[in-house]
Amino acid sequence: MTTPVLNAAVRRVRRRPQWPVxxxxxxxxxxxxxxxxxxxxxxxxxxxxxxQNARFFASPIPVVTHIVSVTTYSMLGAFQFLPSLRxxxxxxxxxxRILAPAGLLAALSGLWMTCFYPLPPGDGPALFVLRLxxxxxxxxxxxxxxxxxxxxxFVRHGTWMTRGYAIGVAAGxxxxxxxxxxxxxxxxxxxxxxxxxxxxxxxxxxxxxxVVRRRASAGRSR
Length: 222
What we know:
The structure is a single chain. 83% of the residues lie in helices and 0% in strands. It is mainly alpha-helical. It has one domain (18-221). Helix 2 runs antiparallel to helix 4 (60-78), helix 6 runs antiparallel to helix 7 and helix 7 runs antiparallel to helix 8. The chain starts with a helix and ends with a helix.
C-alpha cells in the first residue's frame, strides 16, 4: 500500500516547476550584464573621459575581459540550476567546460582591477579588502570544484561550483541591496557602501549554503 503513495510523491516532485530558479538567476544577472554592456558601449563609442571611467580608458583589456567573462558565466551558469538540463551529462559537461574558464577569468580579472586600478570614488580600504577576499574565494571555489570533478566527486563538485556562482552573481544582489538605501538616504559613504556590498556577498553565500544543504538532505532521503 505504501508503494503507490511513494510513487505519487515522486511524481509530484517531478512535476514541480523547474524554471523559477533559473529565471530568477537570469533576471538577477541582467543587472550587471546590462551595466557591462553600457560600459562596453562607453569604451567603444567615444564617450567622454571622466574621473569615474578614466581608469577603464587607461587600461581597457581587464574590464572588457571581466565583462565578457562575467556575462558568459552568470547567464550560462543559471541553466545549470535547471534539473532537466543538469541531469544530461552531455549538456552539463559542455557547459562546465565553458563555465569554469569563464568564472576563473571573471574572478582573476576582478582581482586584477581591484589591485591595479585606482580606487573609484566612494570606495575605500574596507571594500578593497572585501573585493580581494570574495574574488579570491570565487576563484578558489571554482578550482576546488574542478579538482573535485576530476576525482569524480560529484557532490563536492556541485557544492564548490554553487558557491563560486553565488559569489559571481553578487553584483546583481548588490544593486538590489544598494538601490533602496540610495532612494531613502542618498549616496552612501565609504563605510556604508562597504557594508551594503559586503552584505550582498553574504546573502548570496547564505543562499548557496541553503541549496547545498538541501541537495545533501535530498540525497540522504533517497
